[in-house]
Design brief:
The chain is α+β, with helices and mostly antiparallel strands. Helices cover about 20% and strands about 45% of the residues. It has 2 domains: about 5-40, no CATH class; about 45-180, Alpha-Beta Complex (Nucleoside Triphosphate Pyrophosphohydrolase), CATH 3.90.79.10. A hairpin with a 5-residue loop joins strand 2 (about 20-25) and strand 3 (about 35-40). The protein is elongated and about 55 Å long.
Length: about 180
């Protein structure tokens, strides 16, 4: 295993209410120096929740994705608030975005989206045994709930409006978890 590079200097390049951009000067074990830039989130991570409505159906949400300038179909997602655990954030986001909570919330994976450029990480959960427990959300418009059959996950993955990498990965993780306990 290589020795970690030494961080010589970190400089704030730009910031918004959500992110910082930092320039990082590094010295590698072989003496080479390099300058990298990274996007640093202001939070403690995010969650993505795959809600299982029943043995045969998932619950998705359709919401506006400003990065792509279109409506996207995906799973429940949101940031982890300060002082909140990933599991608590998963329950809260599920309640805010769908009006449901889950009696069982299983962590499927912790993933980094672009580790070479960002510290942004997400915890992916499978929510089962749903029950009504709505919470007011922070979305600027109501989200559209969409039921999707587990038997048609291939068709879901092929949709142009279902392209969030976390959601795509979550379909495989959820299927694997469900098959392991079948």
């Amino acid at each position: 295993m290589n020795k970690l590079p030494q961080i010589l200097k970190t400089t704030l390049v730009a910031q918004s209410r959500l992110f910082y951009i930092e320039a990082v000067d590094l010295r590698f074990a072989n003496g080479q120096q390099a300058n990298f830039e990274r996007l640093v989130g202001r939070g403690t991570g995010a969650v993505l929740v795959v809600p299982l409505v029943d043995a045969d159906n998932l619950l998705l949400v359709r919401e506006y994705a400003v990065g792509l300038e279109r409506y996207e179909l995906g799973f429940v997602k949101g940031r982890i608030d300060a002082g909140e655990s990933a599991a608590a954030a998963a329950h809260r986001e599920l309640r805010e975005e769908t009006g449901f909570d889950a009696a069982r919330m299983k962590l499927l994976a912790n993933v980094a989206l672009t580790p070479a450029y960002s510290n942004y990480c997400s915890s992916i959960f499978l929510a089962q045994d749903l029950f009504r427990a709505p919470l007011p959300g922070d979305e600027p418009e109501p989200l559209q709930a969409v039921h999707w059959p587990l038997a048609k996950l291939g068709q879901l993955r092929a949709r142009e409006d279902f392209c969030d990498a976390r959601s795509l990965l979550a379909t495989y993780l959820a299927r694997e978890a469900l098959e392991a306990h079948a």
